[in-house]
What does this fold into?
Amino acid sequence: MFNAIAAKAHHYVLLADGKVPDPNRNAPGQLTAKVDTVLGILAWAGTAAGVAGVLITGAMMAISMRRGEGSEHMGRLGMVLGGCVLVATAGPVVTFVFA
It folds into this structure.
């Protein structure tokens, strides 16, 4: 099914003039510097939030074990670690797709 959709998309893209579009990506230097700064701050904040999430989840697990309570912290830890992986791979994934 995917091959049929890809073949139709390829047909319609090449139907226009026989060439695949390749847009020019020249953003102003001042804009790219500001965007890079904002993205760097967001990446730092995401990493800090991930570390804090792992530490908080670990502390909650330790407190629950000490009290002898059963808990669902492993699911929470999985969510935190999944978020960490998402934050860590966001830049490379976007670079791979759009570069």
